[in-house]
Amino acid sequence: MEFIEFRLLWDGKINRGEVAEYFNISVQQASLDFAKYLDLAKHNMEYDRHEKVYRATEHFKPLFLAPDTQTYLNEIEGLATGTISRSVSFVGARPPCDVVTLPVRRVRIEMLLPILWAIRDGKEIDVTYQSMRTPDPTRQWIAPHSLAFDGSRWHARAWCHGSSRFRDFVLTRFQHIHGRRPGTVNPQDDTDWQSFVVIEIAPNPNLTPSQRDSVIADFGMQDGRLSKTIRRSLVSYFVRHLRIEIPQESQPIVWANRTQFEDLRHDL
Length: 268
Hints:
The chain has 8 helices and 11 strands. With 268 residues, the protein is of the alpha+beta class. The relative contact order is 0.08.
């Protein structure tokens, strides 16, 4: 039923052969499925005898799906990049599509597994790590408690015994993991990770009224604002991706409540 409705929604039409091919059933069985769908949503489709397809009617209202453009576009992206197999996608006809992909940062499995197990078991690990703030790798004990994805890189969120603070460690920069020991750090003490804040985005006041309306529509803003709830430790990544960490006249959006986060300026 969902497959039939998906094709009606996004393609506007569907035939019995599509159902038979996707689910590896007979055309006769597919006919029964169409009959059942018509019983449940008789005003959603009608048969076009000329082209031998069922078409969505002007009264079409999804019964099994919640129409969401972002979900559909994400699936189109997954098909284009190969992260979604055609065999599991309901997408039928799709427009020519290409996707800009960033260079892949490969995380070595011999680095990831000990980190995962340390998080699971509440252990600390002895690591050699190459920071971009130091010219050479350093060896130190850390207590990882979570993983975070900043939009392009994966990090381990951990207490660093060397600097005596919670930090983000890029997974691809671990060079060696030498051993582990019982944990002595409570993850609940990582207040920046445990707490959530609201980031408010607004159109740049320098925009024309028409440009402002376009930005509001682009971001789905309500009353000229978009509020995003996010972990405090991830704020710097979020605003950098939107390029709003520093006010600029040419940017279409601004960080409306930036002054509330002056204590994060060293991260921005």
